[in-house]
Amino acid sequence: MKYNFTLDYFQKSADYILSKIDEKPEIALILGSALGGLSEEIENPVVIDYKDIPNFLVSTVKSHAGKLIIGKLHGKTVVCMSGRFHYYEGYDFEQLVIPIRVFKLIGCKATILTNAAGAINTDFNVGDIMIIKDHIKLMGASPLRGPNVEELGPRFFDVTDMYTKELRELAKNCAAKLDMKLQEGVYYYHMGPNFETPAEIRAMRTLGADAVGMSTVTEALTAAHCGMKLLGLSLMTNMAAGVLDQPVDGDEVSETGERVAKDFRALLAEIVKAL
Fold first, then answer.
1. Residue 165: its pLDDT value, please?
2. Domain around 135
3. What predicted TM-score, i.e. pTM, was given to this entire model?
């Protein structure tokens, strides 16, 4: 077994972070591609480079800042990852448990995951925000593979309510206050870094997927193992391959993110206030 993680391994990361802050965070935020701007709204931020945290990982994606930001956001103490880690960067699935487990150890009770995704459902539009109600992951190892860390969760665990229904309803109520329309659907996990083929997108649609992306699922599974409440939000930055008669362009992800960033931040603000 390549990884033999113990509680002490994650505790070293947690202890380093706790030594830098005065108040434990309640909520963890992991921001996806083109959505990192929310971190600028955190008050009195303590900023820690990933590379400085013992036993942590380092983001290699140019659009991801690679910093941990801890402070107040709309009255709540939060820890925010501006940039996340992906399998396509070269990490093993088992390594991708690290951030969520560390957040559990520093006090977080809930996690909000955001991502940029391609719309598979033809009723969706670019710019829509989708609440994740479930996901499909048919490839690769579980991030929980290997020796179980009993202090963090059981060997075998239920994922029926992984994307916590209570938080999904809360997000809908917050969107209604803002007169925003939200979609709700199933997120399909694709390993990347290439975008999917049109044939793969057709297969995903047949399987019941509404959107596809290259992140989130490993974090969600780890949160479920840790017993953390979880909300997942996907921004439809493009229509998936083959939906439109045009190639998928990575620049469109950033452009769409910038266009809807204000509305997305407003929604997240309402959700954080309500938690």
1. 98
2. 7-274
3. 0.93
